[in-house]
Each structure stands twice: as C-alpha cells, then as structure tokens.
Amino acid sequence: MEDRFGSFTVLEDAVLTDALEKIDANRHGFVVVVDRHDHVLGVLTDGDVRRGILKGAGISCPVREIYTRNAKVVGVDEGFNAVIGLFRNQSIKFLPIVDDDGRLVNIITKSQLHALMLQDIHADLTYDFFSIDTSILDTQIFQRPWGFYKTTVLNDYYQSKVLSVRPGGQLSLQSHSRREEHWVVVHGTGLVQLDESLVNVTCGSSVFIPKGARHRLINTDDSETLIINEVQIGDYLGEDDIIRYEDEYGRA
C-alpha cells in the first residue's frame, strides 16, 4: 500500500506535520487515516486541519486529535452505483475504497469519476483512477469579436461548447471539413445561414450543420444575447478546421 498510496495515507499516531507534508505532496487536499494494517480509520482534509488549528492544535499534535472518524467509504465490490450515490453529497469530494475487511485498496475523487465518464473509460473500482487525466474538466472561456465561447467537454469523441453571441453579432460564413455540428438555441433569437438556406431560430430551435456545409450564425436581436449549445462530432475537433469565406471582422 505504501508504494501506491504513500502520499495519500497517514497513521493516526503521526504528527500533523507529517500529514501536511503528504497533503502538500499529493496536491489533492486530503489523506486517508489508516492503522498499521491499512484498515481505514477516517480521513484528514485541509478543512480538518484548519478547524483543528482554530481550536488550538499545533503542528506537532497527533493526527488522532483532529481527523474525521467514520468517514464515508465504499466497498470494492459495491460498484459505481454506490460511488455515484455518495458523491451526490456535495461535501464528499473523494472516497476511500475498501475490501471486505475494511482495508484500503483504492481511492477515487469526484473529478476522476467525472473524467472517467466523459472519456468512456471502462473500469471497476480497482482501476488506477490517478492515471486519469482530469484536465478534461478544465474548461476555458475564449473571446471572439462576436462574443465568447466556453468549452464544456472535449474528448476523443466529441466537443461541446456554449456560444454567447452579443446583440447584433455574427459568426463568419465558414465550413468544416472534419466535423459536423449540432446547435440548440437556449436563449435569444437569430438567423442561421446554411448553404443557400436562411432559417430563423428561437429558444428551442435545433440546427444540424453537416461536414462541408457553409454556415453562419447571426444574432438578430438588438438587446438580447443569443446563446447556443453546440456539439461537435468528428475525427478532428481543432479550431484550425475552419474555412472562412466572409467575415464581418476581417478574418476571412
């Protein structure tokens, strides 16, 4: 256990300094408190440390004085339904996974579960969850002349975005060679140019953009933002898969 989870476990008779060094090393904000046979006794989080210090605990106090006992755990044979059910509690950010004797066999964090589901990773509760790249959950906001967009999911299968088009703004007339797009209007009104067709769209409208189709989105309202949920599907989802034919902002 020490080799795999050495920076994630601490004995209850260790001093707080030892626990803090491990929390700093693992960069996840917690350690699991175990006995010398790896039985899970509880957990120690950044919050436990903060509360302990506020009550007068020093950095040399034993972990046993401030850790949370009776922390939630999940049995290795209980499956992901048990994990998902426990993670519905907003205060639970991670779960120790134990065998039938209560020994620690794994750990899963809420962000790892989300990343596993988004990437369609087939696993059971013995999987090495710390090998999962959780950066897939880190989304950014990108400014554009017409407004901004925020990526909400990006993986090997698809990408989803939220597009916010300012009043009077419009995207360039463009096409994509390696992806199709599915748009759903969630707020506002606009006009979609799709090859030779013009379609008025409002909240609830959906539009399919095939590969190679020339398309443009225009916010026709002079006061309300036009918000679109966009899903891209294809073998390449990079921003450089854009051919611009016309652009109000000089990018064509």
What do these coordinates show?
- This protein has helices at 2-5, 16-26, 46-54, 80-87, 110-118, and strands at 9-11, 30-34, 40-45, 68-69, 74-75, 94-98, 104-109, 141-144, 147-154, 158-165, 173-175, 179-187, 190-194, 197-201, 206-209, 215-219, 226-234, 243-246.
- The strands form five sheets. Strands 8-9-10-17-12-15 form a six-stranded antiparallel β-sheet, with no helix packed on it.
- It has 252 residues and is α+β, with helices and mostly antiparallel strands.
- It folds into two domains: 2-136, Roll (CBS-domain); 139-246, Sandwich (Jelly Rolls).
- The longest helix has 11 residues, at 16-26.
- β13 and β14 (197-201) form a beta hairpin.
- The mean pLDDT is 94.
- It is built from five helices and 18 strands.
Q: How many DSSP H or I helices?
A: 5
| Strand arrangement, major sheet | 8-9-10-17-12-15
Give the CATH level 1 class of the largest domain. Answer: Alpha Beta
Uncertain segments are none
CATH architecture of the largest domain: Roll
**Can you count the beta strands?**
18
Q: What portion of the residues fall into strands of 2 or more residues?
A: 35-45%
Give the helix/strand class: alpha+beta
Total domain units: 2
Element string (H = helix, E = strand): HEHEEHEEHEEHEEEEEEEEEEE
Rg result: 25 Å
Q: Give the overall silhouette.
A: elongated
Mean pLDDT value: 94
Tell me the quaternary state.
single chain
The CATH topology of the largest domain turns out to be CBS-domain
N-to-C terminal Cα separation, in Å? 58 Å
Please identify which CATH superfamily of the largest domain we are dealing with: CBS-domain
Helical fraction equals 10-25%
Task: Please give the largest β-sheet.
Answer: 6 strands, antiparallel
